[in-house]
Design a protein that fits this description.
The structure holds 2 protein chains of 2 kinds.
Chain A (H helix, E strand, L loop, with lengths): L1 H31 L6 H19 L5 H28 L7 H23 L4 E2 L8 E3 L5 E3 H23 L1 H11 L1 H6 L4 H27 L1 E2 L5 H14 L4 H20 L6 H15 L14
Antiparallel strand pairs in A: 1-4, 2-3
Chain B lengths: L1 H41 L4 H26 L7 H18 L4 H23 L4 H20 L19 H20 L1 H11 L1 H6 L4 H27 L9 H14 L4 H17 L4 H18 L31
Helix pairs in contact in B: 2-6, 2-9, 2-10, 2-11, 3-4, 3-5, 3-9, 4-9, 6-7, 6-9, 7-9, 10-11
The chains are: A mainly alpha, B mainly alpha.
């Protein structure tokens, strides 16, 4: 029993990373119906920006303010990057066929990966353990380390901020309106382009936060690290119901838990396969996801 | 009378023209075959030339078959590399462990891939658009992970020591046959049914087309030829391993199809040739290769989202007279 609770804790901390990335996918898909394949690479760029920030600042700041600064710098940088990607690559294609936009998204993803590889080199970079790793014993054999606590705290805080932004601010209201009906929102005087940019900025900032946290958890990052977590986060978004913010959170946590359970039972080689199997099963039996609305097709 | 006679001669002309364009296509490809055969046998060009030519042939089979699924039937599939890997592994096992003759091994590989296509297609083809794309991507990855975890086929190291049997003659033969068969399928009654599904699935169903059957048939034919292409590549490169058939490979094939013009067989062929050449020419600059490739992809999509040819076919019939778009309406939503 203790073992499974322990795995649950580990799963939730992996799942939090997926959830943070999945939020960006789900928001962008909800608003412009685009699977933003470059999102996983924005996550990677965020990780690298966080790494270089900590390397520069490590001499001047104590651990926790340094972590927060790195997080904020990475999030800001990625938000700008996300807006830039949208401006340069996706906006000219608004109204083009879906496949053209999708190919642009993957093209952008390759571009970020290989441009990063050109800049920093293909080798994996070690990530400094910013916060000293401490292990706390809860009860029995169950333990949780400081990194996991930090992941959970950051995820919860970022989620609360996101929920506040989406539900209580004017930008959030505009985002919900545009994802509900873009044309009607435009007629009501909402600046649709600016709202889409804001969505990309918020999604990319969350991915960057996930990148910094990922680097600290696995202590190494490389330019191609965004591919798998990106796909997994997309699965999480579909699992929760694409377009739904609570769905992305639940989907991420659920997927993280399933993966750790699979690994814990000795099938770690099949972990990715199980994730894709979950995706296919959910698509076949409940394509709108756990929290999604079922949309009837009209002739 | 005059009108009738004119009409009659017009029909005759159309028939001659259709026959003519087929024979012209055949003659043209035989010329290409002969020229490359001479270049290869005299050894005037190096190994790079040979492997480029083989890669182009394999990529043509892959793009033309993916075009049948994506461009003609309008079903967005991102799992083509999965079918390719099934064909590659199946045919390699056939020649390695069972001493099956090479052409038969290729066809067995294709059949196994087609079977996988049916197994994957029947549940997933109910999905539409992006969801289908993601489901096929997922299946492609699952196939890769299954090979990765099967010791019989070598796991992560893959199969090696596959006899090198893909000669230029076999390659050319299979490429030509694939293109002709797929093109004939597209021009047949069944092909028109597939195009109807692409244009409007509900309307096609209302006209009495069994959409599920046709989608699965198109999927299976596409998978079959992808399997053949996989077999050809396995018997050229000696080694196959799961990592070379990932989602990136599926994507590369899709890019070739879209670059040439989704829905056009000749576009798919041109896309395969252009992109294979581009990637080979960029080979000497490994660091910049993918950057240039991805940047040109994005620029291409922004400035020419329909691909080089759109849905038009490149024909020689302009020599005689202008011919309309053989697929009817060019507009399409994918």
């Amino acid at each position: 029993m203790d073992y499974h609770i322990q795995q649950l804790i580990n799963g939730i901390s992996t799942g939090s990373i997926y959830a943070l990335i999945a939020l960006g996918y789900t928001m962008v898909y909800g608003i412009i119906k685009l699977i933003n394949f470059a999102h996983g690479d924005v996550f990677m760029v965020g990780g690298f920006v966080g790494l270089y920030t900590t390397q520069i600042l490590s001499a001047y700041l104590p651990p926790i303010p340094m972590f927060l600064t790195a997080l904020i710098v990475a999030m800001t940088f990625s938000a700008v990057l996300g807006v830039l990607i949208e401006r340069l690559a996706y906006r000219p294609l608004r109204g083009a066929s879906r496949i053209a936009v999708l190919i642009t998204a993957v093209g952008m993803s390759f571009f970020l990966e290989y441009a990063m590889m050109y800049i920093v080199g293909p080798q994996a970079k070690g990530y400094p353990g910013i916060i000293e790793k401490k292990t706390y014993h809860l009860y029995g054999d169950i333990q949780i380390d400081s990194n996991q606590v930090m992941i959970l705290l950051s995820t919860i805080i970022l989620m609360l901020v996101l929920v506040y932004v989406v539900h209580k601010t004017k930008t959030g209201k505009a985002m919900r309106a545009v994802s509900f009906d873009m044309e009607a929102a435009r007629l009501m005087g909402i600046n649709v382009d600016r709202t889409i940019s804001a969505t990309f900025a918020i999604g990319s900032a969350l991915a960057a936060a996930a990148g910094v946290i990922f680097g600290m958890t696995y202590s190494s990052i490389d330019p191609l690290m965004g591919i798998m977590p990106g796909l997994k986060a997309f699965i999480a978004a579909v699992l929760g119901g694409i377009g739904s913010i609570p769905g992305a959170l639940v989907g991420g946590l659920l997927l993280g838990t399933i993966e750790t359970e699979v690994s814990a039972n000795g099938f770690s080689m099949w972990r990715d396969g199980v994730a894709f199997l979950v995706l296919i099963l959910i698509l076949i039996f409940r394509p709108s996801g756990l929290f999604g609305k079922n949309v009837k097709e009209k002739v | 009378m005059a009108v009738l006679r004119k009409h009659g001669s017009f029909r005759l002309m159309v028939i001659m023209q259709k026959l003519g364009s087929f024979w012209m296509f055949l003659a043209g490809s035989l010329v290409v075959f002969a020229v490359i055969q001479v270049l290869l046998s005299t050894g005037a060009m190096g190994d790079v030339f040979q492997s480029t030519v083989v890669l182009i042939g394999i990529n043509i089979i892959l793009t033309v078959s993916l075009n049948l699924i994506n461009g003609i039937t309008g079903q967005f599939s991102l799992g083509h590399a999965g079918f390719m890997s099934v064909g590659a592994y199946a045919s390699a096992i056939m020649t390695l462990d069972f001493n099956v003759p090479f052409p038969l091994a290729l066809i067995i590989g294709g059949c196994v891939a087609a079977l996988c296509g049916a197994i994957i297609g029947i549940p997933t083809l109910r999905l539409k658009g992006d969801y289908l794309a993601i489901a096929t991507l997922g299946f492609g990855e699952i196939i890769r992970i299954v090979f990765l975890n099967t010791d019989y086929v070598g796991g992560a190291a893959g199969l090696s020591g596959i006899p090198n049997k893909t000669t230029w003659v076999w390659l050319f033969f299979f490429t030509l046959v694939s293109v002709i068969l797929i093109q004939n399928f597209i021009r047949s009654k069944h092909g028109r049914a597939c195009i109807a599904i692409r244009e409007n699935e509900i309307a096609a169903e209302a006209m009495g087309i069994n959409t599920t059957t046709y989608k699965v048939i198109a999927f299976m034919i596409g998978a079959f030829f992808a399997g053949i292409a996989g077999g050809l590549s396995a018997h050229f490169f000696y080694v196959i391993n799961p990592s070379s058939f990932g989602f990136m490979k599926s994507f590369e094939i899709l890019v070739m199809v879209v670059l040439g013009g989704l829905g056009s067989t000749s576009g798919a062929i041109i896309g395969a040739i252009v992109l294979t050449l581009l990637l080979t020419l960029l080979q000497p600059y490994p660091e910049l290769r993918m950057i240039i490739y991805s940047a040109s992809l994005v620029l291409m999509m922004i400035f020419r989202p329909g691909g080089l040819l759109g849905t038009k076919e490149f024909t020689l019939s302009f020599l005689n007279k202008k011919e309309g778009d053989p697929h009817g309406i060019a507009s399409r939503s994918a």
